[in-house]
Write a structure and sequence with these properties.
37% of the residues lie in helices and 23% in strands. The protein is of the alpha+beta class and 380 residues long. The chain folds into 2 domains: 1-53, Arc Repressor Mutant, subunit A (Orthogonal Bundle); 57-194 and 240-380, Alpha-Beta Plaits, CATH 3.30.70. Strands 2, 3, 4, 5, 6, 10, 11, 12, 13 and 14 form a 10-stranded antiparallel β-sheet that branches. Strand 3 and strand 4 (107-115) form a beta hairpin. Helix 1 (11-23) packs across helix 2 (28-34) and helix 2 (28-34) packs across helix 3. The longest helix is centred in the C-terminal third of the chain and has 17 residues, at 305-321. The chain starts with 10 loop residues before the first helix and ends with a helix. The model is unreliable at 1-5 (pLDDT under 50).
Length: 380
């Protein structure tokens, strides 16, 4: 019989994750040297974590510098149309991530990347889903780009090689945090296009796999390595089109954990900033985004079910202390089943031509109406 895979991360695993976040997934040799191990061992551990803990090494794009404005949507489904709602929301090809959800309501949650100047058309698309009777009381928020929270080793007990959740410590820590937010969580002055068409051919390859070599990208695009290297270094990096790398890992599994989206509201910017800063090194946070023009943030959390209620208890204490005003949340439905309950797309580079985003509002509206009519006609 073969050896069973380890059911938890050990010290070397966590150190590799932290090093990947610190030095980037394109520097495995440097990571191995820093950890006093071999590059082959680092590769083997990454392969094992990819299989056992769904580790993905991705590239985060700062979409603000692509002229794209992020829209976050909470969409309660009309009872009986939960599956159809997800399909309706996928009609608009500028979505980045969509998921079925439950809790505060049964429906869908997700975000879109909408070209600057097309905000009203996107709002019409969302309202049309309501008019067609598929959803009700949809909430639409415009946000900053989402700041990724990568592994730091914080709250990992290296002696017992287990994750710990000192909620009381977190509660006491929040008031001591600073208020200077990273640029990703600051309302941008504008949404300017700083990329060209070659940049938008390179970016999707890096989004899918942050470790892909520039030589591989050059071969796939049928161009020279020198050209790809120039656009990567002079445009993607120097123009801050690439934000950073995402080290996405699920150390608690799916069966024993919950992924949720929270909306946190505050009475003052200072309180919001302190709360947000306290999240940026925690293992239960995936991403943080700020709602434009408001003292409110959206946070994606990932917690063992045994800790979820303790997190809510801590939020209750924060409200009573006056730091947090209120919150809402939904739990993501991430079932692995033949009928996918979630969907993700890279930056919509196929809809960029001659220096402009091609946002076909009329097509999306027509396709949406046709989809609903066809499904209703077939009794779906």
């Amino acid at each position: 019989m073969g050896r069973r895979p380890r059911e938890k991360l050990d010290t070397l695993d966590v150190n590799i994750l932290v090093a990947l976040a610190t030095y980037g997934p394109r520097n495995l040799t440097k990571i191995a040297r820093k950890l006093n191990t071999s590059t082959e061992m680092v590769r083997l551990r990454i392969k094992r974590m990819s299989s056992s803990f769904y580790l993905r090494l991705l590239t985060n794009i700062y979409h603000t510098n692509l002229g794209l404005k992020k829209a976050f949507v909470f969409a309660p489904a009309t009872p009986g149309y939960e599956d159809m709602l997800l399909e309706c929301m996928k009609v608009n090809q500028f979505y980045q991530y969509l998921s079925r959800c439950y809790g505060m309501f049964e429906g869908c949650v997700g975000n879109y990347l909408i070209p600057k100047g097309r905000e009203n058309e996107f709002k019409q698309f969302i309202l049309e889903i309501e008019k067609l009777g598929i959803a009700k009381n949809i909430q639409l928020f415009w946000t900053t780009c989402f700041h990724t929270v990568n592994p730091t080793g914080k709250w990992f007990d290296y002696q017992s090689e287990t994750w710990v959740f000192p909620w009381d410590e977190w509660f006491e820590e929040i008031p001591t945090e600073g208020t200077e937010l990273p640029y990703t969580l600051v309302d941008p002055e504008d949404f300017l296009m700083k990329a060209d068409e070659m940049d938008l051919l390179i970016i999707p390859e890096l989004e899918k796999d942050a470790t892909v070599t520039l030589a591989s990208i050059a071969r796939k695009l049928g161009t020279s390595l020198e050209r790809v290297k120039y656009h990567y270094e002079k445009h993607c990096i120097q123009r801050r089109i690439i934000e950073d790398f995402q080290i996405a890992v699920f150390p608690f599994g799916f069966q024993q954990a919950e992924m949720s989206f929270f909306m946190f509201r505050f009475s003052a910017r200072e309180k919001m900033a302190k709360f947000a800063m306290s999240l940026l090194d925690k293992p239960y946070v995936f991403i943080v985004g700020k709602i434009l023009g408001e003292n409110a943030i959206i946070v994606q959390t990932y917690l063992p079910k045994s800790e979820s209620r303790k997190f809510i208890d801590s939020l209750t204490r924060l409200i009573r202390s006056g730091l947090l005003r209120n919150y809402d949340y939904v739990i993501q439905d991430l079932r692995w089943s033949p009928k996918r309950t979630w969907s993700r797309m890279e930056t919509p580079y196929k809809h960029f031509k001659d220096g402009f985003w091609i946002y076909d509002h009329e097509k999306y509206m027509t396709d949406l109406k046709n989809l609903v009519q066809q499904n209703i006609a077939h009794g779906k």
